[in-house]
Write a structure and sequence with these properties.
The protein has 13 helices and 11 strands. The chain is an alpha/beta fold and 368 residues long. A 7-stranded mixed sheet has the order 3-2-1-4-9-6-10, sandwiched between helices. Strand 7 and strand 8 form a beta hairpin. The two termini are 27 Å apart. The relative contact order is 0.15.
Length: 368
Amino acid sequence: MISGSEAAWKATQRPDVIDHNDPAPARPAASAVPVANPEPGSDPNSGPNHGLVAVPGPGTALPPVTVLLGQLNGARFLEAQLSSIAAQTGCHPDLIVSDDGSSDHGPMLVKAFSTRHPDIGVTRIDGPQRGFAQNFLYLLRSVGPDAPYVALCDQDDYWLPGRLARALRMLEAVPPGMPALYGSRTLVCNADLTPRKPSPLHARPPSFCNALVQSIAGGNTMVLNRAALDLAQAASLEAKKVVSHDWWLYQIITGAGGRVIYDPEPGVLYRQHAHNMIGANNSIRGGLIRLGAVLAGRFARWNTLNIETLTASSHRFTPENRAILQDFVRMRTAPLPRRLWLMRRLRLHRQTRKGDLALWLAAMLRRI
């Protein structure tokens, strides 16, 4: 599923490119790994494979991809995630790990992984220690000017083989220079990676009018092309405080007229445990919690933070989306009849009928 107006995007300036004082480390050439569907269990070190992602068919080797992993006291599950990165087929991953002040042995696991996998470039940096979202924005800014793709990575999940190659194949079809973001469903699992159910399937196309009020793909599934990375690096300098880095990326890319590719095929085992920063929310209880957040005003506070950040970067948006953002700001404080009229005119929406009802309720109660 693809969103974004190519014509609108072409009417805007190309996003700024961050100047890096230090040259990017040399990256190994992408290896021509044969792309195939491995037999389940054929590799004793391959970890769980629930057969949800088919490795893309044979073809030319894909460009390298830089994996950006945010780390903070995640040693318990980190080794499995690192192994799943090393087991990716059809493309060559390198790794940047931003440690945000770990006190466990996670940094030693990263060092040991680097020793075991000399073919994977591993760079460790110290994070800003300003929360998980700012750690990922910091990671995005740490990438040099020659990386063609980046993939965001949580420390406690597990990637199915071929999931990076699948994302790159889809992104390769985007016109050169157009910002593009890939995101997908996940397979929600218990702490031991026993599958529970896939994350919700979003049927409506990604768009800026959806991004203003909802994030549709977890950061743990996101892959960006170079143009999207350039945009994110530049805009991140204007983002003083963000609610969540993945929601912000969805808003920035769609706002600038870029393309968002939503893949209904899960490629990440999304591990649920007691210390998730943000857990899965595809349950009745999760829905009630979200409704409670709307009624308590938390959703409105999130929107206030988002608007401040998006306004600072609105010069990067298409004229149409800049006008939508301005009308969204006006709508939030307008008298009730005009508020509801603007809601309808802007076509703000979430991905489900229940979500839309909650959104309209928030608008009526001035909690949007």
